[in-house]
Amino acid sequence: MHWLFWVMVALGVLGVLNLFLLIVMVFLEKKKPQTIIAWLTILTFFPGIGFIFYVLLGSGLSYRTRRMLKKKAISEKDVLKNIKGLQTFSEVSGTKNFSKDAGLVSLCFDMGGYPCLWNDVKYFCHGLEKIAILKQDLLAAKHSINMEYYIFANDKVGKEIMDILIQKAKEGVKVKLIYDSVGSKKTRKRFFRKLEKAGGEVAEFFPPFMHIRMINLKINYRNHRKIVVIDGKIAYTGGINIRDDHMGMKRKLSPWRDASIRVEGSGVFPLQNIFLDDWRYAKNDSTPVEKYLEEYFPLPTPKGDVGLQVLTSGPDSKLQKIKEAYIKMITTAKKRVWLQTPYFVPDDSFISALTIAQKSGVDVRIMLPAKPDKWSVYFPTLSFAREMAHIGVRIYFYNGFMHAKTLLVDDNKLSIGSCNLDNRSFGLNFECTAIMYSEELATQYAQEMESDMANSNLADESYFKKAPALSKIAQSIFRLFAPLL
Predict the structure, then answer these.
(1) Hey, what long-range contacts does 387-392 have (CB within 8 A, 24 or more apart)?
(2) Active site residue 405
(3) CATH number of the domain that 182 lies in?
(4) How far is CA 366 from CA 47, 335, 402, 418, in A?
(5) Catalytic annotation on 371?
(6) Which of 101, 137, 231, 278 is catalytic?
(7) What is the per-residue pLDDT for 290?
(8) pLDDT class for 303, splitting at 50, 70, 90?
(9) N or C: which end of the chain has fewer CB within 10 A?
(10) Has residue 384 been placed in a domain?
(11) Are 49 and 69 found together in one domain?
(12) What does the pLDDT read at residue 327?
C-alpha cells in the first residue's frame, strides 16, 4: 500500500497545480472561456505533462516583456509628423478620400494609428516573381535595408538574398535583419554571422534561454511578419518567406500559391515603423527616437492611386486588431467575401460574421490548400470548412498549397498580409497586414482568385461526408484544441 500513498500524493499535487493554473487563467491572464476549457482538457488527460505544456505554450507574455515592447516602440504620432499638411483626423485617416469606407478606415486608424494614404502598389502571387523584383530593389539600395522574416532559410534563395545583403553592407549600406527564433530554428547562427562580419546587423526575435534551442519560454509567441523596407521609400509585406518551398521549389507542396505586395508612397512609413519597433526591442536598442525619425523616414512623395492602411496585431495588445478589421469588412460586405488561407481555425465571432454575410446574400468563398503541411491544423480546418459548407459557403481546395493570406471584399477592398485565419495569428503571433482600397487592384486580384478557383476542387457537404472515418474522428478531436492552435 506504500505505493498507493505516493500515487495519492502525486494526484493531490497535480490537482493543486491544475487549480493554480485555473486561477491564473481566469483572474490574472483573463483568458477566453473556450481557451480555458481547451487547456483544462489537456491538464485533465495529460497531468504533469500538461502543466509543462502550459508553462511553455499557454502562459502569456510576461509583464517585463510587454513593458519592454511598449517602451521601445516609436510613437505613430512622431512618425506622422513627417507627413506634412495633415492636420485633422479626417485628413490623417483618409476618411475624406475614402468616404465610402469611412467606418472601416476610421476603425483601422483608431486601432493602429496609421493613416490611409495614396500609394503605388504591386502584388505578387508567386515567390519567384517577388524575389526577382526584390533583388533588383536591394541591389539599388543607397542608404538602408531593413528586413524582417519569420523564416530565413540557408537554402538556394536564402543564400542568394544573403549574398546581396552582404554585398550591400560592404558597400556601406546600413543593413538590419530580424529573424524569428522559432520560424528560423533550422538556420544556423553562422549563416547570419557572415552578414555581421560584413558590417550588417542581425537580431533574433525572442531567442531561447541561454541560446539553448530546447528552452524557450516564449516559443508560443512568434514574429510572423515579413517586412522589407529599402531606403525608407520602397517596402514589401505579405506571406512569402525566404525559403525555397515558398518559391515553389519543393514538389511535395507544389504548386505553391502565395501573396505579397510592393509599396511606394506614404504606406512605407508604417512598415518602417513596425520594423524599427521590433528592432529596438530585439536589440534592446536605446538609440534616441529622433535619430531614427531623421534617418529612416524621408519625406514621402505622393505616389499612386491605391489607398493603403497597415494594421498589426500581436500578444502585446489585448485587442485583436486584424481580426476586428476583418469582421468589420465581412459584416459590411454587399457583394462578395473571398478568402484565401492555409489554416482556417476561426473563433465564434469570426464564424458569426461569415454566417451573417452568407445569410445576407453575400457571395462567400473560402479557398484552402488541398495539400496540407501541418495535419494538427489541417484536421480542424477541415472541420470548420465543413461547417461553412453546411450554411452555403463555397469551399475550394486549391490543387497545391495555398499559403496566401488574403481577403477580397466587394469590388474595392483587398487585404494581403501575414495573418492566417486562426487563433495563433489573431492573438499569439506578431502579424502585419495591408488593407488596400482600390477598384482596379481589387478587380485584378479577383481575376487571380478566379484563376485559382479554376485550379481547385469545389467541395460541398457530400464531399466532406465521404471523408474516411479516421479523418472525421481526428477532425473532432483536434477541433477541441482549436483555441490553442
Answers:
(1) 387/351, 388/351, 388/354, 388/364, 389/459, 389/460, 389/461, 389/463, 389/464, 390/461, 391/355, 391/358, 391/359, 392/358, 392/364
(2) yes
(3) 3.30.870.10
(4) 38, 15, 11, 17
(5) no
(6) 231
(7) 87
(8) confident
(9) N
(10) yes
(11) no
(12) 97
Active-site position among 72, 126, 130, 226: 226
The predicted-structure confidence for 158-214, as pLDDT tens digits, reads as follows 999 999 999 999 999 999 999 999 999 999 999 999 999 999 999 999 887 656 555
Domain holding 52, by residue range, is: 2-59
- Model confidence, pTM: 0.89
Q: Is 278 labeled as catalytic in the residue annotation? A: no
For residue 226, indicate whether it is catalytic.
Answer: yes
Same domain, 331 and 236: no
Are 433 and 374 in the same domain? yes
Report, as an integer, the average pLDDT of 451-467: 89
Active site residue 233: no
Question: Domains in the chain: how many in total?
Answer: 3
- 370 and 424 belong to one structural domain: yes
231 is catalytic: yes
Residue 108 lies in a domain: no
Query: What pLDDT does 87 receive?
Result: 46
Q: Which of 254, 238, 247, 237 is nearest to 126 (CA)?
A: 247
From the list 72, 126, 224, 328, the catalytic residue is 224
Same domain, 291 and 332: no
Query: Taking a C-beta distance cutoff of 8 angstroms, is the pair 436, 412 a contact?
Result: no
Query: Which of 410, 413, 422, 452 is the catalytic position?
Result: 410
Name the band, by pLDDT with cuts 50, 70 and 90, for residue 264.
very high
- Structure-block grid coordinates of residue 325: 478589421
